[in-house]
Inverse folding.
């Protein structure tokens, strides 16, 4: 049993130590995201790596302490009692990481829409009640005008798309009358800018995802042989 640090050079030492010992199969417990870096290092070195759930290991008979954890895992792995969790190929892992990051960006953008709705509601500007989507074309044009200093409901209604069916121009004009308090206008402007920032991040993320997918397809391209026609027997 040997202890190592957690820096990259320490992870490289672990891999080299395992290779020097002739190890071909390694088992690891999943602990948050801390296992990923070492898992990838060992996998790139050509060794089999099994990622096991710590809760499954605890259900097996035997004494297990923190000090003897690695010995216990090694013993169970020797007996073939551990089942590795599914982990996709490296290319799919890359795309999955980007997609999860993309989901976080979408959530962050959605939170800014909620903050804009809150600022409008506090001023009793009920724009989000008379348009289907606050981040639609009409909503964004009106928000830009409001943050730009426009306060006249009639002029704001002129930015309305004529295809809107959720409300009439009169209803929208009534919804755009409120108490224009500076602190809420400031919050609205900040949230609008943050929303646009996340939209730009989302576009950049989509481009990066496309590049990653193209690389994965190029690496995994397989020439599928043309199926040969089976001979037809005449009866």
């Amino acid at each position: 049993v040997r202890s190592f640090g957690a820096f990259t050079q320490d992870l490289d030492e672990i891999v080299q130590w395992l290779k020097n010992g002739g190890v071909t199969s390694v088992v690891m417990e999943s602990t948050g995201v801390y296992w990923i870096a070492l898992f990838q290092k060992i996998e790139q070195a050509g060794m089999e790596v099994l990622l096991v759930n710590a809760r499954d290991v605890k259900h097996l008979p035997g004494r297990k302490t923190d000090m003897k954890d690695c010995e216990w895992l090694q013993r169970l792995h020797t007996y073939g009692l551990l089942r590795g969790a599914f982990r996709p190929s490296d290319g799919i892992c890359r795309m999955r990481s980007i997609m999860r990051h993309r989901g976080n960006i979408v959530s962050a953008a959605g939170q800014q829409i909620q903050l804009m709705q809150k600022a409008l509601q506090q001023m009793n500007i009920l724009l989000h009640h008379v348009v289907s989507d606050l981040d639609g074309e009409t909503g964004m044009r009106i928000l830009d005008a409001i943050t730009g200093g426009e306060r006249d409901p009639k002029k704001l209604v002129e930015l309305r798309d004529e295809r809107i069916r959720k409300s009439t121009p009169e209803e929208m004009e009534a919804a755009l009358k409120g108490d224009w308090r500076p602190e809420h206008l400031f919050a609205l402007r900040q949230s609008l800018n943050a929303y646009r920032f996340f939209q730009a991040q989302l576009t950049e993320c989509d481009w990066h995802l496309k590049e990653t997918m193209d690389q994965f397809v190029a690496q995994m391209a397989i020439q599928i042989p043309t199926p040969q026609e089976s001979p037809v027997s005449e009866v």
The first helix runs from residue 8 to 20. The chain has a mean pLDDT of 87. The chain is about 60% helix and 5% strand. The two ends are 73 Å apart (CA to CA).
